[in-house]
Specification:
This protein is mainly α. It folds into two domains: about 70 residues, no CATH class; about 120 residues, no CATH class. Helices cover about 35% and strands about 10% of the residues. It has five helices and four strands, in the order ααααββββα. The strands form two sheets. It has a two-stranded parallel sheet. A two-stranded antiparallel sheet has the order 3-4. α1 packs across α2. The protein is flat and about 50 Å long.
Length: about 180
């Protein structure tokens, strides 16, 4: 999915930016159920996505899964970071990474899930992108609420801070208009 998103982003006029983010968000919304009153379009997209994953696996570009649940995406991000750490030969006790929109480990997470085979603890910074579709009914309680930062003090374990807690959506996005729905 990330490779596909990257290729689509390269076609956005003016390069990367809000258009690139919007493409992956719109795809996720459609596949995860946010396509509004278009159940046939959602089913067609899901079948097409599952078929594409199957073809990529047949071409031995996998193993890939068509599961795009928050849990599967979190696990895929952790697995990718673990692979990068192993490939780079990093031996630090704590490894900070970014890119995925879900920070962690957060209170309530299984810390063991964020430990990788070398024994290092992964820490994800999360995102500063406000995307309402990824937020729960209690947005500030969502692991996808924007505005996380990681504090590192000497040899202590890093600490995740939520810098935008207490702000509402209007304070974060101001008068910006939501992305135009293209799907």
């Amino acid at each position: 999915m990330y490779a596909w998103t990257y290729e689509v982003a390269q076609q956005v006029p003016g390069g990367m930016g809000i258009g690139a983010h919007g493409v992956s968000t719109r795809a996720w919304k459609m596949l995860a159920g946010g396509s509004g009153n278009r159940p046939m379009r959602k089913r067609a997209a899901a079948v097409g996505f599952a078929s594409a994953v199957g073809m990529l696996n047949t071409a031995k570009l996998g193993p890939l899964r068509a599961d795009i649940s928050p849990e599967a995406l979190r696990r895929a991000g952790i697995d990718a970071a673990a692979s990068a750490v192993a490939g780079l030969g990093l031996d630090a006790n704590h490894i900070l990474y970014g890119h995925t929109h879900r920070p962690g480990p957060l209170p309530g997470d299984s810390v063991a899930e964020w430990l990788i085979p070398g024994g290092q603890q992964l820490w994800n910074t999360g995102s500063w992108v406000f995307e309402p579709h990824f937020l729960a009914k209690a947005p500030m309680g969502s692991p996808y609420w924007p505005g996380r930062a990681i504090e590192v003090i000497d040899d202590e374990a890093p600490v995740i801070h939520s810098l935008l807690n207490g702000c509402d959506a209007k304070e974060i996005v101001g008068d910006l208009q939501p992305h135009e729905e293209l799907l």
